[in-house]
Amino acid sequence: MTPCLFCEICAGNIPSAEVFSDDQVLAFRDIDPQAPTHILVIPRRHIASLAELAPADTELLGHLLMTATGIAEGEGLAGAGYRVVVNCGRHGGQAVDHLHVHVLGGRQMAWPPG
Ligand code: 5GP
Ligand code: ZN
C-alpha cells in the first residue's frame, strides 16, 4: 500500500513548514499556496475524509476547527477575515485522502467557489 502523504508528514518522514502541533493535530503551510496565507490543519490519526468521520470524532473535529481559528488569529487574519475549506471526495475536489482543513487568507476571496 502507498503510504499516506499526510501521515508521512505527521510522522516527520516528509518535511513540512510546521505552524502548530499538539498530540491530536498538526498544521503546516500548503506547498502550493492559493492565497498569501494558506495553511492545512490535519488530524494526526488517519481519517480519509469528512465522509469517514464517526460520532466519536466530534470532539476531534471541534479541535481541528478551533485550531484553524486560532491559527487564523495568530496569522493576523481575523480582522479582515479568512476562509476555511474542507474538500470532500471527487466532486469536492479532494486530492489528498487524509482529512485536512484549509485556512486561506490575505486576499479577497470569491464566491461562488469554482
Ligand atoms: P485538497 O485538494 O485535497 O483539498 O488539498 C490538498 C492540498 O495539499 C493542496 O492544497 C496541495 O497543495 C497540498 N499538498 C499536496 N502535497 C503536499 C505536500 O507534500 N506538502 C504540503 N505542505 N502540502 C501539500
Ligand atoms: Zn493519512
Verbal overview:
This protein has three helices and five strands. The chain has 114 residues and is of the alpha+beta class. It has a single domain (5-105), classed as HIT-like (HIT family, subunit A), CATH 3.30.428. A five-stranded antiparallel sheet has the order 1-2-3-5-4, covered by helices on one side. Strand 2 and strand 3 (37-43) form a beta hairpin. The longest helix has 17 residues, at 58-74. The site of zinc ion has 5 residues, from helix 1.
Q: What's the number of structural domains? A: 1
Structural class of the secondary elements? alpha+beta
What ligand species are in this complex? guanosine-5'-monophosphate, zinc ion
Quote the beta fraction.
Answer: 15-25%
pLDDT < 50 stretches: none
CATH class membership: Alpha Beta
Count the DSSP helices: 3
Name the overall outline. Answer: globular
Mean pLDDT: 97
Alpha carbon gyration radius: 14 Å
In helices, the fraction of residues equals 10-25%
**CATH H level, superfamily name:** HIT-like
Q: What's the total number of strands?
A: 5
Q: What is the name of the CATH architecture?
A: 2-Layer Sandwich
N-to-C span = 32 Å
| Series of H and E elements | HEEEHEHE
What summary fits the major beta sheet? 5 strands, antiparallel
At the fold tier of CATH, the topology name is HIT family, subunit A
Oligomer: single chain
> Reading side by side through the largest sheet, how are the strands ordered?
1-2-3-5-4
